[in-house]
């Protein structure tokens, strides 16, 4: 593949012209008035007869018409998106900088449909069986701690991709959780995180899950060592570690060196990216919390979305549509961010999860052809659960000077029917995109204000310009399968954007430099001697900060 600059594609220039000639002054009120079937044209419903999942994507409230949409589809064709999707599913080493395949889709190919020829793929099933046996034993109480008591608390120790997925999914699927099994997630190197967690755990009934793809991550190894010390203070005998510590890793040797018994090791493979790993052994805490069967439903839901992504035509392909609309704003309107706003309390970690998923994947400036891009790549992802965001930052989305495309997500059915809460919640879910799209004109404000309309500032302050684009995504219910499909939808959206921008979405070189510098600085802090700072080769700002710290450290 040539991996051309996206801006060198013929469609890119045409999209630029379309932005100038009509995109930037596109008027949603007029567009909806002119076309009664706009919703039908720009919405797609995806369902699967294999799993309990269904997703409606309404993208009609976007600044697009047929010409723009078709031009975006041409861009996807010119970038050979279909071919790149096929390469991913075939196990080609599309992570070129690390010479690795990108096969999270193989983890959820529960029936083995994809026939991928890559070392480790045939081990997926036995590993899942291992996870099933183990999670069943812990959940049933058959697995006992060193004093013969069943496990009551699990503590997942991991960071980044070894934390965010399990946290997000266990929160999103809490209605399916075993309520008498407490789940904790410790990620931060800040000792407070571990200290506050251990405060509520009992060494006799706590299981630690050390989750690290590389098993070298400083935070995770330090936290795991602290947890082991705490455990041994009570248990005394190192042999008891085997009943209370398991490891999830691709690095079997390092996990063994840490003292994890062979049978307590759950492995995965280097073709699983950290931020795409919740489907692998990294999902063990999910299986423990919701049960293995539900975990498998999550995988099956994702797999159905994989099939849709692989097989559907570009114009009907949900991940492709989301990706193209994102590119339209990111690269032609100059939008810098993308908000993800789930109207479901259980989904409150969804935006956090895709902050890593999207920003670590597509925050890159070098193409696979070693050129520096001359366009913007990955958006800044942010958001929180509705309706909380409405009372915090929506003011800026409605009336600020920045264009912030938003994805609104909601389930038709709630897990908790409490009075009319769900109707009230959803009335907001429907109202916000409507307000953003159509706004309120000055004439409307004047008519509403009556006598007060003589106050010019009041009138102008109450105007909503509208034309602020949104996608609305509805699921039937946040079931394991539906959540699996939704996560896969966003994963593949990220993939398509990376394909079009010609970047490698599957490495993360940008996180390394800071880690290297921290390792150089740590000995200075350990030496506790401010006089050693000068001469350590740091700039005056870093040196000044270090000296301030060392002179005041207690
Ligand atoms: O799972 P681990 O090897 O411990 O890695 C944990 C995380 O740290 C790294 O710095 C990467 O930025 C993440 O992609 C990764 O998920």
Automatic annotation (TrEMBL):
> What's the name of the protein?
Glucose-6-phosphate isomerase
Q: Does the keyword Isomerase apply?
A: yes
**What Gene Ontology biological process does one annotation of this record name?**
glucose 6-phosphate metabolic process
Q: Which NCBIfam families match?
A: PRK00179.1
Q: What class of enzyme is it?
A: isomerase
| Known EC number | 5.3.1.9
- Asked if Isomerase is a keyword of the record, the answer is yes
Reaction equation(s) it catalyzes: alpha-D-glucose 6-phosphate = beta-D-fructose 6-phosphate
Q: What is the lineage of its organism?
A: Eukaryota, Fungi, Dikarya, Basidiomycota, Ustilaginomycotina
Q: Which family does it belong to?
A: Belongs to the GPI family.
**Superkingdom as given in the UniProt entry:** Eukaryota
Extract one GO molecular function annotation from the record: monosaccharide binding
Q: In which pathway does it act?
A: Carbohydrate degradation; glycolysis; D-glyceraldehyde 3-phosphate and glycerone phosphate from D-glucose: step 2/4
Q: Name one Pfam family in it.
A: PGI
PROSITE patterns, per the entry: P_GLUCOSE_ISOMERASE_1 (PS00765), P_GLUCOSE_ISOMERASE_2 (PS00174), P_GLUCOSE_ISOMERASE_3 (PS51463)
Purpose: In the cytoplasm, catalyzes the conversion of glucose-6-phosphate to fructose-6-phosphate, the second step in glycolysis, and the reverse reaction during gluconeogenesis.
